[in-house]
Amino acid sequence: MRFSRDTWLGRYQILSPLGAGGMGEVYRARDPKINRDVAIKVLPAAFSTDSERLRRFEQEAQAAGAINHPNIVSIYDVDTHEGSPYVVSELLEGTTLREELNGNGLPVRKSVDYALQIASGLAAAHAKGIVHRDLKPENLFVARDGRLKILDFGLAKLIEQRDGNEAHSDVLTRKFDTDAGVILGTVGYMSPEQVRAERVDHRTDIFALGTIFYEMLAGKRAFDGASTIETLNAILKEDPPELSLSNSQINPALERVVMHCLEKSPDQRFQSARDVEFALQSLSGATSGRTVTATSLFERPTNKRAWLPWIIAAVLLLGLLATLPLAIAYLRRSPVQTQTAARFFIYPAEKTSFGGPFAVSPDGLRVVLRATSEGRTLLWVREIDSLTAKPLEGTDDAIYPFWSPDSRFIGFFAAGKLKKIEFTGGPVQTLCDAPDGRGGTWNRDGVILFTPSPLSVVCRVPAAGGSPVPVTKLDATTKEQGHHFPYFLPDGRHFLYAGRAGLNENSWLVIGSLDSTETKRLQNFTSNAVYVAPGYLVTMRQLTLVAQSFDPDKLELGGEPFPIVEGVDIIPGLAFGSFSLSQTGVLVYRSGSGGNVDLAWFDRAGKRLGTLGPPAAYNNPTLSPDEKRLAVSMIDPQGRLSSDIWLIDLASGSRTRLTFDPGAESSPTWKPDGSVLAFHSSRDGPLNLYQKATNGAGNEDPLFKSANSKNPTDWSADGKFILYTEQDPQTGSDLWVLPLSGEQKPFPFLHTNAVEVQGQFSPNGKWIAYSSNESGTFQVYVRGFPSGGQWQISSNGGGDPKWRRDGKELFYISPDRKLMAVDLKGDGPTIEAGVPKTLFQMPVRGLPGPRNYYDVSHDGQRFLVAATPEDAASRPMTVVLNWQSGLKR
After folding, report:
1. Most buried of 184, 198, 267, 401, CB within 10 angstroms?
2. Are residues 186 and 309 in the same domain?
3. CA–CA separation, 509 and 529 (whole Å)
4. Which of 850, 852, 541, 804 is nearest to 680 (CA)?
5. Could you read off the pLDDT of 44-64 as tens digits, one per residue?
6. What is the pLDDT of residues 533-575, one digit of tens each?
7. 92-129, pLDDT tens digit by residue?
């Protein structure tokens, strides 16, 4: 089926054809909803005749679309048009690897760089349980900036043999399924187990990677018989010719990597794509994309001195991890290192997971990171040239770490305070109050700038401790809500900060000064920003880390921003990127999904029962009173500040957008009859309370406005009251009640110097459960409403309380992210709480303080959780040495 210009496929407008083949036709199209061009591959209608096959294809394509990785093409949508399935993906500019090969080989360095990128992309897919099955040069795309993308994940599931008729891509393709007895794969790139029609796994992709790597180096295919049968026999029984016969300059160690990928038995190959990536990194110290190799380890040694790095690499390849510090030290002291870049990974230790912001020291010698192990989240320090990290006792639930300029001390926020500690450990010193910090920075004069809470301005305090003093002022003209993520510029007097407002266009990256109240806007705020010598401002645009020329004397940007690395994780809503740079050329970043989570059902034992809809940047999941719908706020996954309320049908999984204001709408709260949702909105500047009918009719009407920001947390079962938190400049977060009858004048439920959040009415309306740090750490309490006694429910900290429908059980999340349950008795003036018991470990982000992660079914048997991706805990940090040498402007 051919489509002409201006044909519409769903919401996509066809612009022009891009190509065609046996697997369908590809078009350039426009997505007017988000104003971008996309690529659409329309597959033959014959592929949709089997509904089960199409269902499996859609499921896998959607899963592939959930992978956010710089070496995998981004999939935006999967649908059908008049019986023809189609896939919507990002639009790429460049050529396929087949076109780049053009019957010849590639330079060794480029071949290794491409192999690294393929391995990195496969590792991300395999971590999600997705196997490509048909990897070949036609499915590898080289963008104009040198970035390689893997295409067509999931399409192999769709290819079937019907009545002797085979589906073909550009070269012969045969049927394959995960079950034994069925074949699929492109001849010349199939694994032996595919040829034998055996069950396959991710190691099949490793074999295909080996064949492609061989072809890039040798300029010919590894298995290329005169006929299909001869090629298949060669795959089963023969080894390809030695690479040295085609290219005498190829290092024997590199050849061993290729041949290890091509082992006939899957058990004898590399056991993961991550292993392939590590082996190549061990040989080269190379980083994919925009950097080059640190030494000439790919070339055959020609003198005695040249054997030294090759020997180091060979030892690393054999798995002697203890030599890694020596290899890194070699790279760091080598004169070549000042001209080239090198990359390696920091993986979490066994039973340990990374989470939250991290920071590399100014001298580039160590990284401080947040890691959770055995239920405790601490700061850990990892020397760049070490294999292990050391935990810093006393830093429980620390967040937003930052370094002193001499790289000796680490500042951080924990337990409502700004604190510091030496990187070697020792006593923790409290500097001042900071209820919910949003970043800090430290100059050589012993001044620390920090943001004590989300709705605060930037304050200064001596590094020895003292009383904070504001140094910025909110801009009323843009309705600023807070100043986040301060960062000192080289003179130690000027600093960057994020001026956060309710609308994206009113949020700015601003320059302030310790010596003046004058400020200067640089650009619209997209993420935290840092300055690095000799003159770059580094920040994020969507999920890409970018650099732009910056004059620290004139305080002016110059030229256009240019990309450093794609696919960097970001905390949505906060717009804090997972990257850090030293002034010595060290870049540390963490790839990720841009804050995407799964809406997953769990039972009381923690068994995952299923997932609701595709992953997205969901927050505040709230079940409707009849448990037929879910209200969520969905944050822009590209790191912007806006969000909207969406409704999800639990039976079909279909999503409906309810709010459309460009500001931030969040914290949906159901009216007891399910007809209306209350929520907060930033459209007025401060967060005010609004409501809208859940059938979508009518306007988004204000419920209550005031100068302080507010957040609805619950609606009483009788429909008479809305419970909300209010951010008071003097007392912090307090709990207030809005009556919905009479004068509708709010009154305080708890108005103290402590932080009170997450109020929840009991089903009978006599009690309110909430979280408070009145004891110094967040605990869950129950207090009578509108007045009465108070009882502490949690024993070792907790937040996010939820009632069972009958009021006889209360759930909450402990500081180590376990879901807890407490039996409750009493229907009079007192309440009796049982001993908290653990249900299961919650798969949620390890950010400190109470967060709205889940909701519970009325019977208390199922829990809908905004769960982090299952591979998130194993994602490494990437360290790039001398990153600037790889920049292409």
Report:
1. 401
2. yes
3. 8
4. 852
5. 766 666 665 566 566 656 666
6. 889 999 998 788 999 999 999 999 998 888 898 888 888 778 8
7. 888 999 999 988 889 888 999 999 999 999 988 888 77
For residues 367 and 369, what is the distance between their CA atoms, to the nearest angstrom? 6
**Residue 532 domain-assigned (yes or no):** yes
Residue 781, beta-bridge partner list = 770, 792
- Taking the C-alpha atoms of residue 286 and residue 336, their distance in angstroms, rounded to an integer, is 13
Angstrom distances, CA of residue 850 to CA of 761, 772, 816 = 17, 9, 11
Phi-psi region of 416 (alpha: psi -120 to 50; beta: other; left: phi over 0): left
DSSP helix/strand/coil, 316: helix
Is the Cβ–Cβ distance between 376 and 321 less than 8 Å? no
Same domain, residue pair 248 and 386 = no
Residue 521 CB: number of other CB atoms within 10 A? 13
Give 24's strand partners. Answer: 21
Separation between Cα atoms, residue 839 and residue 834, nearest integer Å: 14
Q: Give the torsion through C-alpha atoms of 470, 476, 480, 486, to 10 deg.
A: -30
The whole-model pTM stands at 0.59
> What is the three-class DSSP state of 157?
helix
* Residue 294, Cβ density class (10 Å: 0-12 exposed, 13-18 middle, ≥19 buried): buried
Residue 390 parent element (H or E): strand 389-392
* Any domain includes 881: no
Which residue shows structure tokens 């061009």?
Answer: 37
Residues 674 and 639 in one domain: yes
How far is it, in rounded angstroms, from Cα 612 to Cα 601? 8
- Is the separation of the CB atoms in 395 and 412 below 8 Å? yes
Q: Which one, of 201, 208, 219, 167, lies nearest residue 22 by Cα?
A: 167
In a domain, 886, yes or no: no
State the amino acid at position 354 in one-letter form.
F
Residue range 3-20: average pLDDT?
A: 86
3-class state of residue 88 by DSSP: strand
Q: Are residues 233 and 369 in the same domain?
A: no
- Angstrom distance (rounded) from CA 535 to CA 555: 11
Q: How many domains does the chain have?
A: 4
Q: What does the alpha-carbon distance between residue 586 and residue 851 come to, in Å, rounded to a whole number?
A: 33
Angle at alpha carbon of residue 252, lines to 307 and 206, rounded to 5°: 130
| CATH number, position 376 | 2.120.10.30
Domain containing 859 equals 598-868
HSE of 467 in the Cβ direction (CA atoms, 13 Å)? 1
Helix, strand or coil, per DSSP, at residue 237: helix
Which pLDDT score is estimated for 62?
A: 64
Cis peptide leading into residue 836 (ω within 30°): no
* 366 domain-assigned: yes
* Cα–Cα distance measured from residue 485 to residue 627, given in angstroms and rounded to the nearest whole number: 40
